[in-house]
Amino acid sequence: MLNQTVEYALRAVIYVARDPSASFRAADVATGITAPRNYIAKILSQLVRAGILESVRGPTGGFRLAGLPTTVRLADVVAAFGRSVERRCLLGHGVCGNNPSCGAHRRWAPIAQMMDDFFADTTIADLLATRSPT
Q1: How many Cα atoms occupy the beta-carbon half-sphere of 77 within 13 Å?
Q2: Residue extents of the structural domains in the chain
Q3: Checking phi first, is residue 51 left (phi over 0); if not, alpha (psi -120 to 50) or beta?
Q4: In this structure, what DSSP letter does residue 17 have?
Q5: What is the pTM for the complete model shown?
């Protein structure tokens, strides 16, 4: 349900947040999350503009989380790139929710709301706490 940019952004933020005392270069983040370096560099810059990451200059510079992992929600990361994917009706009735009489709407709407709630209620710290060691 997320586009590739948002998926990479979430993975990059989690990667950077795992060590708050360090700054990570774009190339290291790209390697760490197995993503194209130039693409990740653009994503990291957008996350800086959104205030989620900060850029540190100098020989030990790179990117790090701008705040605490407990204050950054997944929804904040998604919002930095706009609405990731507009929900389309499974039966071809346009935007999901615009036709509540749609046969799929009644069953899909609660699932979609649970997904929205997950992104709104889950912080980077929540995911770091459940992350298995690598």
Answers
A1: 29
A2: 4-83+123-129
A3: left
A4: H
A5: 0.83
